[in-house]
Backbone:
């Protein structure tokens, strides 16, 4: 067996850093189907998982891959898959099953330009709303957006910890640029990496209720074969896990799967500010576009424009409060993203009508340059 | 809160271009990693991706800086390294006016170039030493000598770490050939410059 945590400094791509983050988080099962620009994640874990006692399986397609990930999670393994837009679309049905059955797992989407096959395989950030609402029905989800290879490492650990703590699929919404670019990545010593595991049931196995929530609203989770009576279904189910097809049971189940997220926003949501203290205009961005925006803020400051950046690390649940607080004191907002305005809709919703919020979007196939953002900033404010 | 950037920054943008299969991406990775892990600068590395990496025009972009690099793409390179005519034609107009152009002299006709040019027959030198696959490493040695964007020690260590196992020694020899050629080129230019100065005064 080799080390699961490769402590030291590495010069690796975001995809490889994501794979190493998964191993460090305790992931021991990966099922996937190759797709550029996410293939390097599968390629790397295919080599590394067997070295640490884990399993890699290439499935016949992304639908099956997502099903295998859910199955492995119920067998007690921390599990993941990685894909890009077309595969993400195929995974949606089983991501919904994972939400309904409260199955911890991690799904990485290294975004490329769509719709459909789009521009294989140039970068984009066009799947942000699909991440929020891609599966049918109403639910809460957690999605994170890394801006660098280093963050691909750390946020993959965070994704596993959140998925285990709150029992749901957690999405890592990366992009082709962050996935493929190489940069220095520091991997800390094993003992400095904090990992979480799903809450485990206690007490009599025959009286166990599969979905009876604990104090934070999350039900403890056994693995199959341990002797607990479990029934896992995508039908509306009661606390025992049995299908009960009534509006009352639906209400109870929905309160649980949405409440466990809505009640723990403070624990889940992460943002990062840059030059916000005296900022008059605030850029809001994430992923690779946040790098562009950082450079644009410096450029604007050089020209005497008081700009700052709010970088969204957590995308879903949406960081409403930090934006609302800024809206009380700044002159305007500008959302920077490689789509035609998805997160911008959320920004507008939080900012309200009193403060102007404009979009610097891009249809995909290239990234937005800092000069372009600065020019737009000058024009708008 | 992130640290604010110091405006007095050293930043070099390096674009390496050639055919897929010439080791362009490997050269970029070695350069980026040497700068980052050995010289302890910040560096980013991105490669052109797609059918290019299997034969067409191919490129690697490396940025080396003493500050955090926000934006990993290059629009105006400080240093342009060309291993193919197609790559030269595609990127020659992007180089900064005070930039440096390094070319594989047998494969490129640097017409219309208005910047300082450094030439090396890297492929011929690689073939003469028995392996034309190492032209990229010879070019890397040449680049290290004439541009000093990475230290010699950092480049050598990283070549050893990244080339396939069992080929380290041959690659170091190839690197040194390129380095020696680069040092000789610089010395020749210094002499010439000194001679000219002498004549004028």
Residues:
């Amino acid at each position: 067996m080799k080390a699961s945590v490769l402590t030291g400094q590495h010069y690796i791509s975001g995809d490889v850093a994501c794979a190493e983050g998964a191993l460090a988080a305790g992931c021991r099962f990966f099922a996937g189907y190759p797709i550029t620009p996410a293939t390097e994640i599968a390629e790397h874990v295919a080599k590394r998982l067997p070295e640490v006692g884990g399993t890699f399986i290439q499935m016949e397609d992304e639908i099956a891959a997502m099903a295998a990930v859910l199955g492995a999670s119920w067998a007690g393994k921390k599990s993941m898959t990685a894909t890009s837009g077309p595969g993400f679309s195929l995974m949606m049905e089983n991501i919904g099953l994972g939400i309904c059955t409260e199955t911890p797992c991690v799904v990485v989407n290294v975004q490329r330009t769509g719709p459909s096959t789009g521009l294989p395989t140039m970068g984009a950030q066009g799947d942000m709303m699909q991440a929020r609402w891609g599966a049918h029905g109403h639910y809460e989800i957690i999605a994170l957006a890394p801006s660098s290879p280093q963050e691909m490492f750390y946020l993959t650990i965070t994704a596993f910890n959140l998925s285990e703590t709150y029992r749901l699929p957690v999405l890592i919404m990366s992009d082709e640029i962050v996935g493929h670019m190489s940069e220095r990545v520091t991997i800390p010593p094993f003992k400095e990496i904090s990992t979480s595991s799903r809450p485990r049931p206690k007490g009599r196995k025959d009286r166990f209720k599969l979905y009876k929530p604990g104090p934070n609203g999350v039900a403890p989770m056994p693995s199959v074969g341990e002797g607990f009576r479990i029934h896992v279904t995508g039908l509306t189910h009661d606390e025992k896990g049995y299908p009960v097809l009534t509006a009352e049971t639906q209400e109870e189940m929905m309160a649980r799967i949405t409440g466990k997220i809505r009640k723990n926003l403070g624990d889940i949501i992460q943002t990062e500010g840059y030059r916000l203290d005296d900022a008059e205009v605030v850029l809001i961005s994430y992923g690779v576009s946040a790098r562009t925006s950082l450079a644009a803020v410096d450029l604007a400051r050089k020209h005497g424009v008081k700009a700052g950046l709010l970088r969204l690390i957590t995308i879903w649940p949406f960081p409403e409060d930090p934006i609302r607080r800024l809206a009380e004191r700044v002159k305007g907002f500008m959302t920077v993203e490689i789509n035609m305005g998805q997160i911008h809709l959320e920004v507008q919703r939080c900012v309200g009508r009193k403060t102007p919020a404009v979009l610097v979007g891009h249809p995909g196939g290239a990234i937005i340059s800092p000069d372009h953002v600065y020019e737009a900033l000058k024009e708008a404010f | 809160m992130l640290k604010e950037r110091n405006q007095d920054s050293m930043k070099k943008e390096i674009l390496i271009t050639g055919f897929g299969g010439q080791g362009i991406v490997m050269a970029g990775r070695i350069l980026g990693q040497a700068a980052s892990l050995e010289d302890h600068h910040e560096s980013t590395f991105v490669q052109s991706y797609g059918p290019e990496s299997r034969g067409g025009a191919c490129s690697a972009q490396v940025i080396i800086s003493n500050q955090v690099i926000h934006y990993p793409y290059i629009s105006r390179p400080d240093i342009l390294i060309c291993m193919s005519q197609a790559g030269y034609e595609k990127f020659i107009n992007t180089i900064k006016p005070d930039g440096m152009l390094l070319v594989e002299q047998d494969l490129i006709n640097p017409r219309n170039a208005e910047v300082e040019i450094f030439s090396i027959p890297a492929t011929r030198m690689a073939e003469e030493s028995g392996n034309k696959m190492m032209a990229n490493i010879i070019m890397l040695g040449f680049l290290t000598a004439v541009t000093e964007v990475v230290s010699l020690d950092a480049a050598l260590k990283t070549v050893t770490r990244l080339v396939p196992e069992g080929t380290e020694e041959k690659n170091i020899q190839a690197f040194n050939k390129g380095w020696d050629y680069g040092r000789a080129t610089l010395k020749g230019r210094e002499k010439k410059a000194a001679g000219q100065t002498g004549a004028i005064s």
User: Anything to note?
Assistant: The radius of gyration of chain B is 17 Å. Chain B touches chain A through 24 residues (CB under 8 Å). DSSP finds six helices and six strands in chain B.
